[in-house]
Design a protein that fits this description.
The protein is elongated, with a radius of gyration of 21 Å. It is mainly alpha-helical. The model has no long low-confidence stretch (mean pLDDT 90). 53% of the residues lie in helices and 4% in strands.
């Protein structure tokens, strides 16, 4: 989602086109309304603005731009983890079957983590979380990769018991 700042006094054509009559006026172009903006009438404080943007964009961002801890997690798969007493082959099978029915792109991480935990032991969880957190905090990791590492970290957190 792109957020732009337009000064309608310097760009009066845009102001007229989108019905700007007072300042500040906030308009959003959610994916389903590509040509017609939606007026934002909510509070002007950062938490409310971020919450609104997350709602219309389907994202999970915090005010600093980082991902919230629920980004990438899939509740149906979290339930498989919660309902499991042990991480064994039966757990991997349940996870794989549950994931096969879901459209979210992050389900592959759940299945991969389930397999690795069974193969490498439960200590894999903490080691991998530490590794992923290092990537998230690194200045040399780019935005998209940092987002991916954050999502994987968020998912792996659910496996902690």
């Amino acid at each position: 989602m792109v957020i732009a700042n337009v000064d309608a006094t310097e760009s009066p054509d845009l102001g007229t086109r989108y019905g700007v009559t007072g300042y500040p006026t906030l308009k959003c172009f959610p994916p389903e309304a590509v040509t017609e903006p939606v007026s934002y009438e909510g509070a002007r404080e950062l938490p409310e603005l971020v919450s609104y943007m997350n709602e219309i964009a389907g994202t999970y961002r915090l005010a600093d731009g980082s991902l919230a801890l629920n980004a990438g997690v899939v509740e149906a798969l979290n339930e498989v983890i919660t309902e499991s007493d042990t991480y064994d082959e039966a757990f991997v099978t349940r996870m794989t079957e549950a994931a096969a029915e879901l459209p979210q792109s992050t389900v592959k991480y759940y299945v991969s983590f389930a397999r690795k935990i069974v193969d490498k032991g439960p200590e894999y969880i903490e080691k991998e979380m530490t590794r992923l957190q290092g990537f998230v905090k690194s200045d040399s990791v780019t935005g998209d990769k940092k987002k991916n590492f954050s999502i994987r970290y968020n998912i792996l957190r659910v496996f902690m018991k």
